[in-house]
Design a protein that fits this description.
It is a single chain. The chain is an all-alpha fold and about 120 residues long. It has a domain of about 80 residues. It has four helices and no strands. The N and C termini lie far apart (about 45 Å). The model has no long low-confidence stretch (mean pLDDT about 90).
Length: about 120
């Protein structure tokens, strides 16, 4: 193995950590948007409810559009990769010592398929 290249386990752990950091940043952005939305009520209390309505609708429309586009992109990307991912199935050959790895692979594959179906339903809704 190349000494400068992380092992598969390390690379997977690093990828998870990067995704976790991105999700934490997304959570911070969600909190910032929530705080902004709370500030909209000042328009209503100042007699300009229409401004709050317009701002709320615009924020939600833009958020749904951006989120929907991201979700659709990710769904399409991973659905296109399903055949290649499926070919990565570990050999089973009926050997009991290979059964746990084989079963774990199909459990993970089924989980991805279920999440992709859920993403498709959300995109339709």
């Amino acid at each position: 193995m190349d000494q400068n290249k992380p092992s598969t386990g390390e690379a997977e752990r690093e990828a998870r950590q990067r995704v976790a950091r991105h999700l934490q940043e997304l959570h911070r952005l969600h909190l910032a948007l929530a705080e902004e939305s709370r500030a909209f009520k000042r328009f209503t209390t100042e007699g300009q409810a229409r401004a709050e309505i317009d701002l709320a609708a615009e924020m939600l429309e833009q958020y749904l559009s951006a989120s929907g586009a991201f979700l659709e992109n990710m769904r399409g990307r991973f659905e296109a990769r399903l055949p290649l991912l499926r070919r990565g199935e570990p050999a089973f050959g009926g050997r009991p010592d290979q059964a746990p790895e084989h079963g774990a692979f199909w459990l993970a594959f089924s989980r991805l398929c279920a999440v992709l179906r859920r993403a498709a339903r959300q995109a339709e809704g």
